[in-house]
Design goal:
Helix content is 33%, strand content 14%. It has 85 residues and is of the alpha+beta class.
Length: 85
Amino acid sequence: MRFAAETFRCAWPSTERLEVPEVITADFVYYRLRKPDYTAEDVAAFAARSKEMLAAGRDLYLMFKHEETPEGALNAELLLKQASL
């Protein structure tokens, strides 16, 4: 059984951009990418990091925010193409 926890505080201002440090504590990695405006450079960096995680033998769960606009799905397609997955 595997668990991933995402910490959240309702008191955080919605305009605040939080950056969370990467701390790996298991044999799998969970990324939940919630920003609505990732750049092509951001997606390329996620693709490169994804390749590193998979090459190290880790299972990878990576999700882009998917709500009213298609950006999340388009970013996911771009990442898959760039990471050759």
